[in-house]
Amino acid sequence: MVTVRRSLWHEPRPVDAPPVARLDRLLVGGFAAAALVEGVVRPDLAWRPLVTVLALALMPVLLCRRDRPLLAALVGWGVAGLLSVLQLTAHTGELGLYSMTAVLVLLHSLVRWGSGREMVVGAAFVTVVVALGMYASSAGWADVFGGSVLLLLFVALAAVFRYRADLWHRQQREIRSQERVALARELHDIVAHHVSAIAVQAQAGGVVAGVQPEKAAEVLAAIESEASRTLTEMRSMVRVLREEEAVASSPQRGVADLPALARADTTPTVEVSLDGSLTRLARPVDAALYRLAQESLTNAVRHARSATRVAIDVRREGDAVRLRVSDDGRTESGPAPEPGFGLLGMAERAQLLGGSLSAGPGPEGGWVVEAVLPVEAPA
Asked: Which domains, from first to last, does the chain contain?
């Protein structure tokens, strides 16, 4: 209970309070017109001019009920409390207009848009005013019960709307967080792969330039081509992020694009093997297989020592697809290194699709990455 009280006391204001709009002005105008008409058609109302003026003066407070919910509630319910005090001291009949029910809107706004401190202070003030009003009107138990239920109903509705809005914002933040993680994963896969290829070509160019100068131009052309491909993919990703319509015109790469990763003119050589029916894969699975293979190849090029060959093998096994990327590099003795962002991103891709991923030294040396994904992505 103490924790709940502290949590309520430190509750901040909602950040999505909408500005004053046309509907708010119509609400104020409607209540003001109702107060004016009521002041004219109720000749039996005691102190009618004063009560009508107070009711009309109260209505503009509705416009600031979201920006200053506590102040609006104190002013509105303060007017109601003043009428109760006048009723007690002057020993008159009921002084309130039916249009004064506008204070219920202020109570709703206090709970919906106020901070925890404002809600506690405002609720205490409203409770005192309500108790004073019931005492002044000599309300019976039935009236007390009915009035209390009405107030609690407005408070409960405001609390429900506040909770639903907070839940929606939490979901939006979670979606944005997931999108940031996915974007980081995509950027890592694209940039790391192409930059690694550029680095390998540059290293080869340094060797070739001294032995076969005529081939230096070919190496530079390959570097330029790889850099251009990197820029194209980066621009495509930025276009997808900026323009929703670009998603349809920028399809992701899939298993059918894996043969483009094969290379026989570099070290290590890259061999790609596709086996089984791989043409009707779910789009998320198809794209994930390509990214997993691409990142595994990048890791092999960057980290495999003395590797001369990298094999990418994709095969259909019933309702699953198995991807295996292996190299023939030298395996380091000692404890396994901590997984980096690349492996973490790969594991996340596989898990999000209901699959699994393993990476470690192969039985015949080198490094092996295996991923098993379902053919159909989970809903």
From this structure: 2-139 (no CATH), 254-379 (3.30.565.10)
